[in-house]
Amino acid sequence: MSPARPGRQPAKKKSAYQPPPNSRAAAAARGTAASSGRAKPTRSRSSQRDAPPSRAWAGKDDGLGGDQIEGRRAVLELLRAGSRPIQRVLVASGQDPAQALDDIEAMAQAQRIPLELVSKGRLESIARTDTHQGVLALARAVQPVELDELIEGHPGVAPFLLVAAGITDPRNLGALLRSAECAGVTGVVLPRHRTARLSPSVAKTAAGAIEHLPFATVPGIPAGLERLSKAGVLTIGLAGEAKRSIFDLDLSSVPVALVLGEEEKGLAPLVRKRCDELVAIPQFGDVESLNVSVAGAVAFYEVARQRLAASR
Q1: Domain ends where: 85, 112, 142?
Q2: What does pTM read for this prediction?
Q3: Domain encompassing residue 173
Q4: Could you tell me if 70 and 128 are in contact, meaning their C-beta atoms sit under 8 angstroms apart?
Q5: Do 235 and 300 belong together in one domain?
Q6: Which tens digit of pLDDT belongs to each residue from 112-165?
Q7: CB–CB of 233/278 below 8 Å?
Q8: Does 30 map to a domain?
Q9: For residues 141 and 53, what is the distance between their CA atoms, to the nearest angstrom?
Q10: Which residues contact 77 (CB under 8 A, 6 or more apart)?
Protein backbone atom coordinates (compact mmCIF):
# COMPACT_ATOMS: atom_id res chain seq x y z
CA MET A 1 0.00 0.00 0.00
CA SER A 2 1.46 3.39 -0.96
CA PRO A 3 2.03 5.89 1.89
CA ALA A 4 -0.50 8.68 2.32
CA ARG A 5 0.47 12.01 0.82
CA PRO A 6 1.63 14.60 3.40
CA GLY A 7 -1.04 17.12 4.26
CA ARG A 8 -3.78 15.25 2.37
CA GLN A 9 -7.18 15.74 3.98
CA PRO A 10 -9.65 12.85 4.24
CA ALA A 11 -12.40 12.99 1.64
CA LYS A 12 -15.59 14.62 2.81
CA LYS A 13 -18.62 12.41 2.87
CA LYS A 14 -21.24 13.46 0.34
CA SER A 15 -24.43 14.79 1.81
CA ALA A 16 -27.78 13.19 1.10
CA TYR A 17 -29.51 14.03 -2.15
CA GLN A 18 -31.41 17.29 -2.16
CA PRO A 19 -33.26 18.76 -5.13
CA PRO A 20 -31.79 21.85 -6.81
CA PRO A 21 -32.59 24.99 -4.74
CA ASN A 22 -34.74 26.61 -7.45
CA SER A 23 -36.86 23.52 -8.13
CA ARG A 24 -40.47 23.00 -7.17
CA ALA A 25 -39.53 19.97 -5.07
CA ALA A 26 -37.09 22.10 -3.07
CA ALA A 27 -39.68 24.83 -2.64
CA ALA A 28 -42.15 22.28 -1.34
CA ALA A 29 -39.55 20.90 1.05
CA ARG A 30 -38.76 24.42 2.32
CA GLY A 31 -42.42 25.11 2.85
CA THR A 32 -42.81 21.92 4.87
CA ALA A 33 -39.76 22.73 7.01
CA ALA A 34 -40.94 26.30 7.63
CA SER A 35 -44.40 25.28 8.78
CA SER A 36 -45.02 24.63 12.44
CA GLY A 37 -45.53 21.12 13.70
CA ARG A 38 -49.12 22.01 14.60
CA ALA A 39 -50.23 22.44 11.01
CA LYS A 40 -52.43 19.59 9.84
CA PRO A 41 -52.00 18.25 6.29
CA THR A 42 -55.26 18.02 4.38
CA ARG A 43 -56.75 14.59 3.82
CA SER A 44 -56.97 15.09 0.08
CA ARG A 45 -53.27 15.83 -0.23
CA SER A 46 -52.24 12.81 1.84
CA SER A 47 -54.58 10.34 0.15
CA GLN A 48 -53.68 11.69 -3.27
CA ARG A 49 -49.99 11.11 -2.59
CA ASP A 50 -50.42 7.49 -1.51
CA ALA A 51 -53.06 6.48 -4.01
CA PRO A 52 -52.31 4.57 -7.21
CA PRO A 53 -52.96 6.35 -10.50
CA SER A 54 -56.60 7.06 -11.13
CA ARG A 55 -58.66 5.12 -13.66
CA ALA A 56 -58.45 8.13 -15.94
CA TRP A 57 -54.71 7.60 -16.08
CA ALA A 58 -54.94 3.86 -16.63
CA GLY A 59 -55.97 4.22 -20.25
CA LYS A 60 -58.50 2.27 -22.27
CA ASP A 61 -56.51 -0.99 -21.96
CA ASP A 62 -54.95 -0.89 -18.53
CA GLY A 63 -54.40 -4.66 -18.72
CA LEU A 64 -51.20 -3.99 -20.68
CA GLY A 65 -49.74 -2.15 -17.70
CA GLY A 66 -46.86 0.29 -17.54
CA ASP A 67 -48.71 2.82 -15.36
CA GLN A 68 -46.15 2.58 -12.53
CA ILE A 69 -42.48 2.86 -13.46
CA GLU A 70 -39.78 2.18 -10.86
CA GLY A 71 -36.01 2.57 -10.97
CA ARG A 72 -33.82 5.46 -12.07
CA ARG A 73 -33.04 4.31 -15.61
CA ALA A 74 -36.65 3.36 -16.33
CA VAL A 75 -37.96 6.70 -15.05
CA LEU A 76 -35.31 8.60 -17.01
CA GLU A 77 -36.35 6.87 -20.23
CA LEU A 78 -40.00 7.56 -19.48
CA LEU A 79 -39.18 11.28 -19.17
CA ARG A 80 -36.91 11.31 -22.22
CA ALA A 81 -39.33 9.49 -24.50
CA GLY A 82 -42.23 11.82 -23.82
CA SER A 83 -44.55 9.28 -25.43
CA ARG A 84 -47.27 9.31 -22.76
CA PRO A 85 -48.52 11.65 -20.03
CA ILE A 86 -46.86 11.43 -16.62
CA GLN A 87 -48.94 12.14 -13.53
CA ARG A 88 -46.09 12.66 -11.06
CA VAL A 89 -42.62 11.52 -10.02
CA LEU A 90 -41.75 10.51 -6.45
CA VAL A 91 -38.18 10.64 -5.12
CA ALA A 92 -37.16 9.32 -1.70
CA SER A 93 -35.29 11.80 0.46
CA GLY A 94 -31.97 11.02 2.12
CA GLN A 95 -30.33 9.37 -0.89
CA ASP A 96 -26.69 9.87 -1.85
CA PRO A 97 -26.22 12.47 -4.61
CA ALA A 98 -26.35 10.99 -8.11
CA GLN A 99 -26.41 12.39 -11.63
CA ALA A 100 -29.46 10.29 -12.46
CA LEU A 101 -31.43 11.97 -9.67
CA ASP A 102 -30.37 15.40 -10.87
CA ASP A 103 -31.40 14.51 -14.43
CA ILE A 104 -34.79 13.25 -13.29
CA GLU A 105 -35.37 16.44 -11.31
CA ALA A 106 -34.32 18.67 -14.22
CA MET A 107 -36.43 16.84 -16.82
CA ALA A 108 -39.50 16.75 -14.60
CA GLN A 109 -39.17 20.46 -13.95
CA ALA A 110 -38.67 21.25 -17.66
CA GLN A 111 -41.80 19.26 -18.55
CA ARG A 112 -43.80 20.75 -15.67
CA ILE A 113 -44.38 17.33 -14.14
CA PRO A 114 -44.98 17.37 -10.36
CA LEU A 115 -42.01 15.93 -8.46
CA GLU A 116 -42.50 15.07 -4.80
CA LEU A 117 -39.67 14.51 -2.32
CA VAL A 118 -41.07 11.91 0.09
CA SER A 119 -39.74 9.78 2.91
CA LYS A 120 -38.20 6.41 2.11
CA GLY A 121 -40.97 4.69 4.02
CA ARG A 122 -43.70 6.45 2.07
CA LEU A 123 -42.09 5.57 -1.25
CA GLU A 124 -41.65 1.94 -0.24
CA SER A 125 -45.33 1.76 0.70
CA ILE A 126 -46.24 2.74 -2.86
CA ALA A 127 -43.52 0.80 -4.70
CA ARG A 128 -44.28 -2.67 -6.05
CA THR A 129 -40.67 -3.85 -6.42
CA ASP A 130 -37.72 -4.12 -4.04
CA THR A 131 -35.37 -2.45 -6.53
CA HIS A 132 -37.01 0.93 -7.04
CA GLN A 133 -33.72 2.79 -6.34
CA GLY A 134 -35.64 5.50 -4.50
CA VAL A 135 -37.57 6.70 -7.57
CA LEU A 136 -40.91 5.92 -9.16
CA ALA A 137 -43.26 7.59 -11.61
CA LEU A 138 -46.98 7.28 -12.19
CA ALA A 139 -48.02 7.59 -15.83
CA ARG A 140 -50.72 6.69 -18.28
CA ALA A 141 -50.66 2.98 -19.12
CA VAL A 142 -48.92 1.84 -22.30
CA GLN A 143 -51.47 1.82 -25.10
CA PRO A 144 -51.40 -1.13 -27.53
CA VAL A 145 -51.44 -0.66 -31.29
CA GLU A 146 -53.09 -2.82 -33.91
CA LEU A 147 -51.14 -5.80 -35.23
CA ASP A 148 -51.46 -4.37 -38.74
CA GLU A 149 -49.49 -1.34 -37.60
CA LEU A 150 -46.57 -3.56 -36.60
CA ILE A 151 -46.80 -5.37 -39.95
CA GLU A 152 -46.67 -2.10 -41.89
CA GLY A 153 -43.67 -0.91 -39.86
CA HIS A 154 -41.63 2.04 -41.02
CA PRO A 155 -40.74 2.99 -44.61
CA GLY A 156 -37.53 1.30 -45.68
CA VAL A 157 -37.34 -0.96 -42.62
CA ALA A 158 -38.52 -4.57 -42.82
CA PRO A 159 -40.60 -5.55 -39.77
CA PHE A 160 -38.53 -7.19 -37.05
CA LEU A 161 -40.91 -8.45 -34.39
CA LEU A 162 -40.79 -10.29 -31.08
CA VAL A 163 -43.71 -12.62 -30.35
CA ALA A 164 -43.73 -13.47 -26.65
CA ALA A 165 -45.80 -16.65 -26.57
CA GLY A 166 -46.68 -17.08 -22.91
CA ILE A 167 -43.64 -15.72 -21.07
CA THR A 168 -44.82 -15.38 -17.47
CA ASP A 169 -41.67 -14.44 -15.55
CA PRO A 170 -41.48 -10.62 -15.28
CA ARG A 171 -37.68 -10.52 -15.23
CA ASN A 172 -37.43 -12.71 -18.32
CA LEU A 173 -39.91 -10.54 -20.20
CA GLY A 174 -38.16 -7.37 -19.08
CA ALA A 175 -34.74 -8.69 -20.12
CA LEU A 176 -36.16 -9.77 -23.49
CA LEU A 177 -37.62 -6.32 -24.10
CA ARG A 178 -34.35 -4.61 -23.22
CA SER A 179 -32.36 -6.83 -25.62
CA ALA A 180 -35.04 -6.51 -28.29
CA GLU A 181 -34.99 -2.71 -28.23
CA CYS A 182 -31.19 -2.59 -28.32
CA ALA A 183 -31.09 -4.99 -31.30
CA GLY A 184 -33.56 -2.96 -33.35
CA VAL A 185 -36.79 -4.92 -32.89
CA THR A 186 -39.61 -2.81 -34.34
CA GLY A 187 -42.54 -4.20 -32.35
CA VAL A 188 -43.73 -6.74 -29.79
CA VAL A 189 -46.73 -9.07 -29.94
CA LEU A 190 -48.23 -10.25 -26.64
CA PRO A 191 -51.19 -12.55 -25.95
CA ARG A 192 -54.00 -10.92 -24.02
CA HIS A 193 -53.90 -13.70 -21.43
CA ARG A 194 -51.37 -16.03 -19.85
CA THR A 195 -48.39 -13.71 -20.04
CA ALA A 196 -46.56 -11.27 -17.80
CA ARG A 197 -47.91 -7.73 -18.17
CA LEU A 198 -45.84 -4.55 -18.20
CA SER A 199 -45.60 -4.51 -14.43
CA PRO A 200 -43.14 -2.36 -12.43
CA SER A 201 -40.80 -5.37 -12.31
CA VAL A 202 -40.92 -5.80 -16.10
CA ALA A 203 -40.41 -2.07 -16.67
CA LYS A 204 -37.50 -1.91 -14.21
CA THR A 205 -35.73 -4.90 -15.81
CA ALA A 206 -36.39 -3.53 -19.29
CA ALA A 207 -34.56 -0.32 -18.24
CA GLY A 208 -36.81 1.97 -20.26
CA ALA A 209 -37.23 -0.23 -23.34
CA ILE A 210 -41.03 -0.22 -23.01
CA GLU A 211 -41.00 3.50 -23.85
CA HIS A 212 -39.48 2.84 -27.27
CA LEU A 213 -41.28 -0.33 -28.39
CA PRO A 214 -44.82 -0.52 -29.80
CA PHE A 215 -46.94 -3.36 -28.43
CA ALA A 216 -49.81 -5.22 -30.04
CA THR A 217 -52.01 -7.71 -28.20
CA VAL A 218 -53.78 -10.63 -29.85
CA PRO A 219 -56.48 -12.96 -28.49
CA GLY A 220 -54.33 -15.99 -29.30
CA ILE A 221 -50.77 -16.42 -30.52
CA PRO A 222 -51.60 -19.11 -33.14
CA ALA A 223 -54.13 -16.84 -34.86
CA GLY A 224 -51.69 -13.94 -34.63
CA LEU A 225 -48.94 -16.00 -36.27
CA GLU A 226 -51.32 -16.95 -39.07
CA ARG A 227 -52.04 -13.27 -39.73
CA LEU A 228 -48.33 -12.48 -39.76
CA SER A 229 -47.57 -15.30 -42.21
CA LYS A 230 -50.35 -14.23 -44.57
CA ALA A 231 -48.93 -10.69 -44.49
CA GLY A 232 -45.52 -11.97 -45.61
CA VAL A 233 -43.77 -11.96 -42.23
CA LEU A 234 -41.53 -15.00 -41.71
CA THR A 235 -42.45 -16.46 -38.31
CA ILE A 236 -39.55 -18.28 -36.66
CA GLY A 237 -40.03 -20.30 -33.50
CA LEU A 238 -37.08 -21.01 -31.22
CA ALA A 239 -37.09 -24.67 -30.12
CA GLY A 240 -34.10 -26.36 -28.56
CA GLU A 241 -34.75 -29.69 -30.31
CA ALA A 242 -35.14 -28.19 -33.80
CA LYS A 243 -32.81 -29.67 -36.42
CA ARG A 244 -32.10 -26.41 -38.20
CA SER A 245 -29.87 -23.70 -36.76
CA ILE A 246 -30.93 -20.07 -36.74
CA PHE A 247 -27.50 -19.31 -38.20
CA ASP A 248 -28.49 -21.19 -41.38
CA LEU A 249 -31.34 -18.84 -42.24
CA ASP A 250 -31.05 -15.77 -44.44
CA LEU A 251 -32.67 -13.07 -42.33
CA SER A 252 -30.89 -10.08 -43.84
CA SER A 253 -33.85 -8.44 -45.56
CA VAL A 254 -37.07 -10.38 -45.02
CA PRO A 255 -39.78 -9.29 -42.56
CA VAL A 256 -39.30 -11.56 -39.55
CA ALA A 257 -41.01 -12.39 -36.26
CA LEU A 258 -39.08 -14.36 -33.63
CA VAL A 259 -41.37 -16.48 -31.47
CA LEU A 260 -40.30 -17.40 -27.92
CA GLY A 261 -42.32 -19.65 -25.66
CA GLU A 262 -42.79 -20.42 -21.99
CA GLU A 263 -39.76 -20.66 -19.73
CA GLU A 264 -40.31 -24.31 -18.84
CA LYS A 265 -42.38 -25.86 -21.66
CA GLY A 266 -41.24 -23.77 -24.60
CA LEU A 267 -43.59 -23.34 -27.56
CA ALA A 268 -47.07 -24.81 -27.29
CA PRO A 269 -47.93 -27.46 -29.93
CA LEU A 270 -50.32 -25.24 -31.91
CA VAL A 271 -47.84 -22.34 -31.80
CA ARG A 272 -45.14 -24.64 -33.22
CA LYS A 273 -47.50 -25.72 -35.98
CA ARG A 274 -48.21 -22.14 -37.01
CA CYS A 275 -44.54 -21.09 -37.19
CA ASP A 276 -43.04 -21.00 -40.69
CA GLU A 277 -39.70 -22.25 -39.35
CA LEU A 278 -38.50 -23.92 -36.17
CA VAL A 279 -34.85 -23.31 -35.37
CA ALA A 280 -32.42 -23.90 -32.54
CA ILE A 281 -29.40 -22.06 -31.20
CA PRO A 282 -26.42 -24.46 -31.32
CA GLN A 283 -25.07 -25.42 -27.89
CA PHE A 284 -21.73 -26.95 -27.08
CA GLY A 285 -21.89 -27.48 -23.32
CA ASP A 286 -23.65 -29.87 -20.99
CA VAL A 287 -26.46 -27.63 -19.73
CA GLU A 288 -29.79 -28.55 -21.31
CA SER A 289 -30.87 -25.14 -22.60
CA LEU A 290 -30.40 -21.39 -22.51
CA ASN A 291 -32.59 -19.12 -20.45
CA VAL A 292 -35.38 -17.73 -22.65
CA SER A 293 -34.16 -14.14 -22.32
CA VAL A 294 -30.61 -15.15 -23.26
CA ALA A 295 -31.82 -17.23 -26.21
CA GLY A 296 -33.90 -14.30 -27.36
CA ALA A 297 -30.93 -11.93 -27.18
CA VAL A 298 -28.79 -14.29 -29.27
CA ALA A 299 -31.55 -14.58 -31.89
CA PHE A 300 -32.21 -10.81 -31.97
CA TYR A 301 -28.57 -10.07 -32.61
CA GLU A 302 -28.28 -12.70 -35.32
CA VAL A 303 -31.00 -10.84 -37.23
CA ALA A 304 -29.31 -7.52 -36.45
CA ARG A 305 -25.91 -8.87 -37.56
CA GLN A 306 -27.25 -10.10 -40.88
CA ARG A 307 -29.11 -6.85 -41.58
CA LEU A 308 -26.06 -4.79 -40.74
CA ALA A 309 -23.84 -6.91 -43.02
CA ALA A 310 -26.35 -6.60 -45.87
CA SER A 311 -26.48 -2.81 -45.54
CA ARG A 312 -22.73 -2.34 -46.04
Answers
A1: 142
A2: 0.81
A3: 147-282+289-311
A4: yes
A5: yes
A6: 999 999 999 999 999 999 989 999 999 999 999 999 999 998 888 999 999 999
A7: no
A8: no
A9: 10
A10: 207, 208, 209, 211, 212
